[in-house]
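QUALITY CONTROL LOG
STEP: pairwise intake check
CHECKER ROLE: data steward
CRITERIA: each record must contain a sequence immediately followed by its structure tokens, with no blank fields

ENTRY 1 OF 2
RESULT FIELD BELOW
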Amino acid sequence: MTLSNLGRRHLLAGFAGGLAAPALPRLAKAADYPGTQPVSILVPYAPGGAPDVLGQVLTQGLHQRLGGNFVLDHRPGASTTLAARLAARAKPDGHTLLMGTVVTFTTAPYALRDPGFDAVKDFAHITMISDTLFLLVANPRWSSLEELLAAARQRPGQLSFATWGVGTTAHLMMVDLMARTGTELLHVPYSGSPPALTDTIAGRADIMFSTFAPARPHVEAGRLRALAIPSPQRSSVLPDVPTLEELGQKDFVSSGWFTLSAPAGTPPAICSSLEKAAVEAFAAPQARARLDSLGLVPAAPGPEALMKRLTREAALNQRLIKAAGIQPE
């Protein structure tokens, strides 16, 4: 999944108030962890945008609760697998962590011939830290999803959908929607979310799944029409947008997500300390107000919930990648 750059300075400036929290009581933690050695949290994206907001909440929250020095280490590249490979090969002492993604663990292993790691065996998965909402948006000439799908059935392959790349979450969700609705749309992949949104606004593409934050201002300004949201319930930020389930697509629920993971073999006591501190950090009211406005919503905490979801979505994405005819690169 690729999140568009929302402007690091703008986002972090708006979030500064939430981060300026009073000193918190330190959680019980593994002896001498993290100590004086900095803890590097590998981020598989370039600086800027929603991942940076999450990263700042995470590092600040862990520092407040565990002490020590937690720092973000941006390592973009290779469909998020560069950062994951580095984390998988790091010393399992809690001083190298990974802010993993749905792409890292459920898409890249099937879209790449050799991602360089095993998504299950090479990591101690600690907890989910956030879900990322998606919106199904279209050029405003389409008044509803039903209208667009009816036109697509009449003109197979003539309407188009934009994505930020082959095999991305946006692509696979549309493959799923076309299979469910018996439609065929032309896939137009772009180099990122901003150009895909720009061409959908201009009418050069008809429809796309977008992450919430970059699409929201265009929806509110009337430049895009939000047709549906692939979530269990409507968003409190855009309450008039129906869920895909409401529109007849049973169990069509999808989102991006981020995890906190460590190299396999990291001591359970350290993982437990990190889990408790991360869950508390993302539940703090100051953090939630800002994150919710960006479509970054709470995810079920803990390693069991993380592994259950990773396993389920990996199987689904493997099937969708095959259905899309994507050959591992």
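ENTRY 2 OF 2
RESULT FIELD BELOW
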Amino acid sequence: MRMLDEHAVSQAPGEIGGSLDAEMARLAHLIYTHAPNDGTFSQRISGLHVSRYSRTDMDYVKTFYLPSLVIVAQGAKTVTVGQEIYQFGRSQMLMFPVALPIAMKATHASYSEPFLGVRLDLDPQKIAELVLKVYPQGLPPARQRSAGYVTGADLGIIGAVKRLMDCLPNPGDAELIAPLVMDEILIRVLRSTIGVHVAEMGFADSGVQRVAKAIAWLRDNFSQQMKVADLAELVHMSESSFREHFKSVTSLSPLQYQKTLRLHEARRLMVSGSMDATTACRLVGYVSTSQFNRDYSRLFGSPPRRDIARLRR
């Protein structure tokens, strides 16, 4: 593993001595150490992933994110969900309350100053346990909902994430101490400016939780025919209210979400299972191969055969 050189983690003039900047530099060093090359790497602590990218992207990378919190230690990224665009960089964090199809690209990254980030998967059940402690009087009213939320990461959050990374070299710390630090991170995020939106993930009757339940059904049954009215009934909402909540939380309609989910699953089957496009098309629920090819090209930028060949190269 190549050691971090003196230029790999940048610090702007005048920042030396600032406690947040110093902690951010330490976190960047840890991320760099645990990301052996460009890419995203899962760590021994469940739900912890680190990323390093040494160049900006010309095109968006299409993928799926679980409910998660992304914190940037260096560089910047742009993420799109449906029609919404999120730009965030050093010392900022981006939170997604539900599983979403996203498109992302690094916009500020180089070999000397790579993009360095941490992603934490968010567990609604754990959040539900902590919400009552953070909001004993109940949740304040939430502002307008969106698919994602960007805000600054304060010294407390950055310090806690650094301590979580510090647990990685020691298996005992990763097993016993890391869950406590993860709770601290969640509590600090719940108390932040986006805390109400995170907290909604843990309330069974919240609009976010109901949309999450519908998404869980779609992910488990993506190949089946779906009526929006049936999905609304599943989560005990009127169809009009369900459509409104689903669009506000995901930036997509239920049908758009299902189509995107099917296309991502077909791509996974073709890449990992060496499956041809016609078979993958049928397995994910498409009836028309020509319609599948058109939708696939529209989402991923090229027809299935060409796209899969490029990915395998």
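INTAKE CHECK: passed for both entries
DESCRIPTIVE NOTE, ENTRY 2: Strands lie at 39-42, 48-53, 61-65, 68-74, 76-81, 84-89, 92-96, 100-108, 115-121, 149-152.
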